[in-house]
Design goal:
This protein has nine helices and 17 strands. It is of the alpha/beta class. Strand 10, helix 5 and strand 11 form a beta-alpha-beta unit. Helix 4 crosses helix 5 and helix 4 crosses helix 8. The chain is globular and about 65 Å long. The structure holds zinc ion (2 copies). One zinc ion (ZN) binds next to loops.
Length: 330
């Protein structure tokens, strides 16, 4: 029987372990994907570190999968072996709960998430629910495409939640912000990039991607912002961002986990400022963003790691040593 390799989390807080397993067979409605690249997302860190509770264990992390269809289960429409596909975080929804019925499948009551509650892409092969995979054009680089599958898609949902304002702040200039800065600049918005104090590399990357200003998160931007999106998992940024937005401005928390938000005076929220969170994605978000990305000329900056080096990639992300996005190559 053919075997596959995977990096497996057996318990939160432990390093991933390299495993060999039989290649699984797709069930009804599923496809087997031969993974070409899988992005490393901050959410993977939250799973590995135990900040997201109740993962399936053992679990193969990874939810920014680019690969090719290797086998197809029964009742799969529209995908053939060899087709290039992307597999995102939203791995399955129930289809019947009020959120699914109401066009908000990102809030489904009984979802499955790739690399969290179903096995993901830190592997040579992965099983996916075909209805939640996206066809990808064959013309782009696998590794450079992988970050679009979460940093791009959930970044895009966060970006839309931020509204139409022209002056936008991005707190935490990692994988998502480096994609969104390009979208915003392409749309003629003024992007202000906030990084850790002294992170000259991230600030210069931000400026090279169209940001009009880059500085430390504690600094006041040169103009009041219409909206800010926080991608760093740091609750203390919420009151800082509130001070940076103008009346009626929005602060969008784009991550799945954040440290506690410190208390702040009500006057910082007053005048119809809003704090919002973004949860997951809908397939509609994905279709919109994947159509827009080539038009906007999105280019990603990636650091490639061999699959077996997944622990090193996670450590580098944890320490803020990655420019743009880390990607595992099996
Ligand atoms: Zn549902
Ligand atoms: Zn992610």
């Amino acid at each position: 029987m053919a075997s596959m390799r995977a990096m497996v989390l057996e318990r939160p807080g432990a390093p991933l372990i390299a495993c060999e397993r039989p290649v699984p067979t797709p069930s009804t409605g599923e496809i087997l994907v031969e993974v070409a690249a899988c992005g490393v997302c901050r959410t993977d860190l939250h799973v590995v570190d135990g900040e997201l509770t109740n993962p399936k264990l053992p679990i193969v992390p990874g939810h920014e999968i680019v690969g090719r269809v290797a086998a197809i289960g029964a009742d799969v429409a529209g995908l053939a072996p060899g087709a290039r596909v992307g597999v995102p975080w939203l791995g399955h929804t129930c289809g019947v709960c009020p959120y699914c019925r109401g066009g908000r499948e990102n809030l489904c009551d009984a979802p499955l998430f790739t690399g969290y509650t179903r096995d993901g892409g830190y592997a040579t092969h992965a099983i996916a629910d075909a209805r939640f995979c996206f066809s990808l054009p064959g013309t782009t680089d696998d590794a450079e495409t992988a970050p679009l599958l979460c940093a791009g898609l959930i970044g895009w949902r966060s970006y839309r939640m931020a509204g139409e304002g022209r002056s936008l702040g991005l707190y935490g200039f990692g994988a998502a912000a480096h994609i969104l800065a390009q979208v915003a600049a392409w749309q003629g918005r003024r992007v202000h990039a906030f990084t850790r104090a002294g992170d000259a590399a991230a600030q210069s990357l931000a400026k090279s991607l169209g940001a009009v200003w880059a500085g430390a998160s504690e600094e006041a931007p040169p103009e009041p912002l219409d909206a800010a999106i926080i991608f760093a998992p740091v609750g203390a940024l919420v009151p800082l961002a509130l001070k940076a937005v103008k009346k009626g401005g929005r602060v969008v928390c784009g991550g799945i986990h954040m440290s506690d938000i410190p208390s702040f005076p009500y006057r910082d929220l007053w005048e119809e400022r809003q704090i919002m969170s973004v949860a997951n994605l809908t397939r509609e978000d994905a279709r919109e963003f994947l159509a827009l990305a080539p038009r906007a000329g999105i280019r990603t900056t990636v650091t490639r790691y061999p699959l077996a080096e997944a622990n090193a990639a996670l450590a580098d992300l944890r320490q803020g040593r990655i420019q743009g996005a880390a990607v595992l190559i099996p």
